[in-house]
Design a protein that fits this description.
- The complex is a heterotrimer of chains A (about 425), B (about 280) and C (about 325).
- Chain A is α/β, with parallel strands linked by helices and about 425 residues long.
- In chain A, about 45% of the residues lie in helices and about 15% in strands.
- In chain A, helix 6 packs across helix 7 and helix 8 runs antiparallel to helix 10.
- The longest helix of chain A has about 30 residues.
- With about 280 residues, chain B is mainly α.
- In chain B, helix 4 packs across helix 10 and helix 5 crosses helix 7.
- The radius of gyration of chain B is 23 Å and the shape is globular.
- Chain B starts with a helix and ends in a 6-residue tail after the last helix.
- The longest helix of chain B is centred in the first third of the chain and has 33 residues.
- With about 325 residues, chain C is mainly alpha-helical.
- Chain C has 2 domains: about 45 residues; about 230 residues, Orthogonal Bundle (MetI-like fold).
- In chain C, strands 1-2 form a two-stranded antiparallel ribbon.
- In chain C, a hairpin with a 2-residue loop joins strand 1 and strand 2.
- In chain C, helix 1 packs across helix 12 and helix 3 runs parallel beside helix 7.
- The two termini of chain C are about 25 Å apart.
- The chains are: A alpha/beta (about 425), B mainly alpha (about 280), C mainly alpha (about 325).
- Chains A and C meet through helix 3, helix 16 and helix 17 of A and helix 11 of C.
């Protein structure tokens, strides 16, 4: 049975009609949209990308923003996903930028090179630094490049270690709350011996912290730290090799869950391992620690500051925050919403849900909250070495420790090359 | 002799079954996960769920707006496939049988166009559409891009097919005084069922799962979002809700499978339509 | 029994041998044909120009320049290209792309052919079920396959558990975490997905072979294997050629599947060209360089396709 001419004509007609109808209805919207520029019925139209799909607080904030500005703006919310950088830049390139977006304050280097981010400094400093003063001291540093502030934070983000204290007790081991690297590795060795498990679980995206934190910590004094952060120390320095090797050892000796293949572990898998007692230590991120501990069902958890080589117990950190594209169409509107999102009114809700925030003036009743934020004042204010160029950022952020583990010599060579290039650019 | 044949058929059947099991396992895994809760999932990845939680599906529709996305995907797919099929058939026939100048070269060019990675075309397309204010129209940017990208491939496949229609057939129709257009509709189209079905299935697969352009084109609006972009809502920054996700995946897969089953008939029939009586 | 002569039997002559009408009426028919032909081409041409030619042109220009969304365009001549040849990550990426393309194409074509031959032997109903099962992976969007397989291939995943089950625990691997192995793994998954399409296309070619062909063979007592050799393979050779081309072209575009399974990891070890292009553009703001990579990649793939065309002997378009 082939399509007889009649039936095929009828089908074609049907499809045409449905297409026509849908196109018509959408063109109606389009003409009303485009004819009034980006205003629809008098309200300014904004697109905001502020919440990850699994960010319960973020979703709540979307609702709050929608409610508060319902009369003024017509807001479309888009979820933040792993393509956020691409999405923002594409929208900027086409002249239809999103009006406000989530971004990590330490990552603004990605935008500034192309002058793609709006300089927020004048707004922050207006009225005698009114807005600026609401932020915890030092938290605006990360988003500052060459004296200009391009992003404001709402949540400090830094790594920490969660320990299943029961397992430690079983292995007859204790570890202080701010362990040195040696104390950390010794404890892990004992755990591996006595309990036969891979002591550490850390997901692939966060494994780089093992190296990155120590790249800060290993230097004997503050001035060296500063030099390092500016890229003035060579990657061939023996201290650097020490740091990389320390992490490589962990993987080679199969201290990291699940042994072979540790480099591709996802967050879910590591969490599951922590839950089923297959690891004793879990590298985690501070503002999600509360949920993780609750979900894991592990009752006796000790919270450690991320282990450090050397004697300084500071921690590398970043912050979740927001940025505005430089060619945003309604910067004043964006700023207004941004101010609201970083106000105590909104951020108090985050605190109530167990997450530390970057502004002053919020009350934390639950003492545990203090635990998750205990290192918030203990962060390195110097930029990470990754900030000296986007290529360095990409390498350090995405390719460590894997590249070093498989190819130590070339990796150091590559990094050194990147450093020299970046220095050359800065001159 | 009959024993030999029995052996070889049985052997073939056995190997097919083994292959099929391996093939279908991922799909079964997805389906079974979609009925689990997240905890159940992590406790034992490979088990069959004890209770069939359809909450994932319910939630996918309610919270994840999958119903809306499904409709959008269908609209985009139908429109794209229709336009591509019609235009590709016209173009392929023209190139194959209407003695268009430089036909071979054009087909060669189309071949090259198929090689191009879509990634490099996203930004310029988006910029262009933004300039002509097309970007805020629902569905159109996506449909236009998909049609343009799928045309070369479909034209090449149909071209090859049309070349196999014997020249005598067409000539005899022409000699009988059949007008060109009539010939096209009455004779050529019905014959091409199989090839068109093939193209359709492949094109549908592309449209259904394309993510990059769909996400970019719907960046500043919340209308006309297809399923592939909707799935993003289930992937968090650090965790993924696998139950919801697999439910979404199953919903995505279902129309594909239905379409394939529906078109099976045309694969076989279109090809066995005898135009020349022996 | 009607012979389904659709150009499949070996006796069909080609275009050049139809009777020539050499009157003025013939010439105007010719002309009308051409006109209609061009008219039919125009709609398609419009779409393709808009969605492909303009972006291609933009890309080519961009590859000779330095550009970033809000800063202007500065032409820099061949800088981007020379940079490419010194960039080891990108060069390795080309190698990875080629590797994955070759391996996955081979797997797809061979497996697809095998499956088509086997399914053909089955009765229609059974065959239909098998066809559905084998074709399903081809229809699944890459993203989904990537996700599912990242589970199956994880260290605790199905594959390793299976090995454990049958006592071959030593074969357990970190399929997606070891530098060389990850490429093989991705290639196999990609090939597996393509096999279904190949099977379908070849199957539709096989079923157009008239049954009369097989009658003779059966009378002679040839078993299926002989039949394959003597009848099926030679007749569908052109289709195999065309399908191979399509598969090879598709295998170079493996962006989605690699991205969801490994994101280019571990480290850089599976960073195929499309991934690298996007990183360079969006992470480094070097859009001009990314365009240059894209242009070179396209040229490379085109060359490979031409070479493999010669290899499969003869013109793809000739049937």
């Amino acid at each position: 049975m082939k399509f007889s001419k009649k039936t095929s004509l009828v089908l074609i007609l049907l499809i045409c009609i449905s297409l026509f109808v849908s196109a018509c209805s959408s063109t109606n919207e389009a003409t009303s949209n485009s004819s009034s520029g980006s205003k629809s019925g008098g309200k300014i139209k904004l697109t905001l990308m502020i919440a990850w799909p699994d960010d319960v607080n973020g979703k709540q904030e979307e609702k709050m923003v929608a409610k508060k500005f319902a009369d003024k703006y017509d807001i479309t919310f888009k979820p933040v996903d792993n393509n956020v950088l691409k999405s923002i830049k594409t929208s900027i390139a086409a002249g239809e930028p999103v009006d406000l977006s989530f971004y990590w304050t330490s990552g603004m280097g990605d935008f500034v090179e192309g002058d793609m981010a709006l300089d927020l400094t004048p707004y922050l400093k207006a009225n005698n630094n009114e807005w600026m003063n609401t932020f915890i001291d030092g938290s605006l540093n990360l988003g500052t490049i060459k004296g200009k502030i391009y992003a404001v934070p709402n949540t400090p983000v830094y790594p920490m270690m969660l320990v299943n204290k029961d397992l430690l007790d079983q292995a007859g081991v204790t570890i202080p709350d701010q362990p040195t690297w040696d104390e950390f590795t010794n404890a892990m060795t004992k755990v591996k011996e006595k309990l036969g498990i891979t002591p550490l679980g850390i997901q692939s995206g966060w494994a780089g912290w093992l190296v990155r934190n120590n790249l800060f910590a290993v230097w004997p004094n503050e001035s060296k730290v500063k030099e390092w952060s500016e890229g003035k120390i060579s990657f061939n320095d023996p201290e650097v090799a020490k740091v990389f090797n320390a992490t490589k050892e962990l993987y080679d000796k199969e201290y990291v869950y699940p042994g072979n293949g540790a480099l591709t572990m996802t967050g879910d898998q590591v969490l599951n391992a922590f839950k089923s007692k297959k690891v004793a230590f879990m590298g985690y991120i501070n503002f999600l620690a509360d949920t993780a501990i609750k979900n894991s069902g592990v009752k006796n958890v000790q919270i450690l500051t991320f282990p450090h080589m050397g004697s300084r117990s500071k921690v590398m950190g970043s912050a979740n925050g927001f940025m505005i594209p430089a060619n945003a169409k309604h910067p004043k509107a964006s700023i207004e919403i941004l101010k609201y999102l970083t106000s105590t009114e909104v951020l108090q809700h985050r605190v109530d849900n167990g997450s530390p925030v970057s502004v002053k003036g919020v009350k934390a009743d639950d003492p545990k909250i203090a635990l998750y934020a205990k290192d918030a004042g203990n962060l390195y204010t110097e930029n990470e070495i990754s900030n000296i160029s986007p290529q360095m950022n990409d390498y350090i952020g995405n390719k460590l420790p894997a590249n070093y583990i498989f190819n130590p010599k070339t990796t150091l060579g590559d990094l050194e090359k990147l450093r020299l290039e970046a220095i050359k650019q800065k001159k | 002799m009959s024993i030999r044949r029995w052996n070889s058929t049985m052997f073939i059947r056995l190997s097919l079954i083994i292959f099929a099991t391996v093939n279908i396992y991922p799909v079964l895994f997805t389906i079974s996960t979609s009925f689990k809760t997240t905890e159940e999932f992590y406790s034992n990845l490979w088990s069959i769920p004890t209770k069939f939680h359809i909450e994932n599906y319910v939630e996918a529709f309610k919270v994840g707006h999958l119903g809306e996305y499904l409709v959008n995907s269908v609209v985009i797919a139908v429109a794209t496939l229709f336009i591509v099929t019609v235009l590709a058939t016209f173009a392929a026939y023209a190139l194959a049988r209407l003695r268009v100048p430089f036909a071979r070269a054009i087909v060669g060019l189309l071949f090259i166009l198929m090689i191009l990675p879509a990634e490099s075309m996203v930004i310029p397309l988006y910029m262009m559409m933004a300039k002509i204010k097309l970007i805020n129209v629902t569905y159109l940017p996506i449909i236009i891009a998909y049609v343009g990208w799928l045309l070369p491939g479909s034209i090449v496949i149909l071209y090859n097919f049309f070349r196999t229609i014997p020249e005598e057939l067409i000539e005899s129709a022409r000699m009988d005084g059949c007008g060109e257009l009539n010939l096209l509709f009455r004779i050529v189209f019905p014959l091409s069922g199989g090839a068109v079905a093939t193209c359709t299935v492949f094109n549908f697969g592309f449209v259904w799962g394309e993510l990059m352009w769909a996400q970019t084109a719907t960046l500043t609006s919340d209308k006309g979002i297809p399923l592939s972009v909707g799935l993003i809502n289930f992937q968090g920054q650090f965790t993924t809700d696998w139950g919801l996700m697999t439910a979404g995946i199953c919903i995505i897969l279902l129309p594909l499978i239905l379409l394939f089953i529906f078109l099976q008939r045309y694969f076989v029939q279109g090809l066995s339509a005898g135009a020349i009586k022996g | 029994m009607t012979s389904q002569s659709k150009g499949q039997t070996i006796n069909i002559k080609h275009q050049s041998e139809y009777p020539v009408i050499s009157t003025s009426k013939g010439r105007s028919i010719n002309f009308k044909q051409r006109l209609l032909g061009i008219a039919l081409l125009i709609p398609a041409a419009i779409f393709i120009t808009f969605t492909m030619f303009i972006p291609i042109f933009w890309n080519i220009v961009l590859s000779f320049a330095d550009w970033s969304p809000l800063s202007g365009l500065h032409l820099v001549g061949l800088d981007n290209y020379s940079k490419l040849f010194q960039d080891s990550v990108t060069l390795k990426g080309f190698g990875y792309s080629i590797f994955i393309a070759v391996i996955s194409s081979m797997i797809a074509i061979l497996t697809g052919l095998l499956l088509a031959l086997m399914v053909y032997k089955m009765s229609n109903k059974e065959g239909a079920v098998f066809r559905l099962i084998f074709f399903t992976p081809s229809m699944m969007p890459f993203i989904i396959i990537g996700l599912i397989f990242s589970f199956i291939l994880s260290p605790d995943g199905l594959v390793n558990q299976f090995f454990r089950l049958i006592g071959l625990g030593s074969l357990e691997q970190a399929w997606l975490a070891k530098p060389g192995l990850v490429l093989w793994t991705v290639a196999v998954v990609s090939g597996w997905k393509g096999a279904g399409s190949v099977m379908m296309l070849l199957y539709t070619a096989i079923i157009t072979i008239p049954a009369s062909m097989f009658e003779a063979a059966r009378l002679e007592g040839a078993n299926y294997f002989r039949q394959i050799q003597m009848i099926i393979l030679p007749l569908i050779k052109p289709t195999i050629g065309m399908v191979s081309m399509l598969v090879i072209i598709g295998s170079f575009k493996a962006y989605d599947i690699v991205f969801t399974m490994t994101k280019g990891g571990p480290g850089d070890y599976s960073k195929i060209v499309p991934l690298q292009m996007l990183d360079v553009a969006f992470s480094f703001n070097e859009f001009g360089y990314a365009a240059a990579i894209g242009v070179l990649f396209t040229i490379l793939v085109a060359i490979i396709i031409f070479i493999s065309q010669k290899f499969t002997k003869g013109d793809v378009y000739e049937y």
